[in-house]
Give the backbone structure.
Amino acid sequence: MSGSARNFSLLGFLALAWGSSNILIKLAVATMPPLTIAALRIVCALLPLLVLARMTRAPLPRQLSTWRALLPLSLFGYVLPPCLIAFGQQRIDAGVTSIAIGAVPIFTALLTQLFVRTERLSPLAVLGLLLGFAGIVVLVGPSALHDLGRSFTGFAAVIAAAFSYALTNVFARATRGLGLAAAGSAVLLGASAILAPACLVFERAWSIEPSTRSALATIALGLISTGTGLILFFKLFERTGPTFVSTANYLTPAVGVALAVSVLSEPLSWTAVLALACILVGVGAVGLARDR
């Protein structure tokens, strides 16, 4: 297989790993609560990272200052989003969740402008941000705003998760020089240290009786979507650079919606299609403006 074909194969596997996460969460929340799902997900995600660390002989960070620097990544990337998404999917569809999470690059661009301020936003980037936020408004829709209970709470939780992921992208500079295996393992260990006691205290995880399908979905979520997805992302980033990897921002929401419709038989409304289009075009505009 040529280098180009291998890169596109890795990109396809990455989009599938990330895009399948929301249907796996939907299956998991049927009989399991959010904190327990998040904790089991992160613990399972640790396994491929620890195996990689062992194979590459990558040591974990030894300085306390490094662990403190990585803590925001653990919290905003692997504690809050998994909990918020699982909570949200108790109330809204997996396909809708995939579209909302697709707005992560929009939030990332906004936060980078606010906190990093490396350059002024171009008109194209501003247009992309406006389209992205328009997509979120269309996705939530007037019907959800009228229903300030179950569905609106689900939307709010998932959008908060997207914002949290964007914060992680801003904090990601703390991993420079550590390497994938060391940084990934350390970040997931930090998240596990928070989530494991939380699910025991607040959800009495030992008393939960999940269905086999929910348990297997949660394990697959950790091993494939989170753990293997993280390895694929950094491997592809190493081989191709940020521009090619950013293509996953287009593929992942579309894959998530397609899987939700085909596997879970979820309905796909015209407003969801319009929201997906707005967000993807917005992400594309922001990406083009950044690369110029």
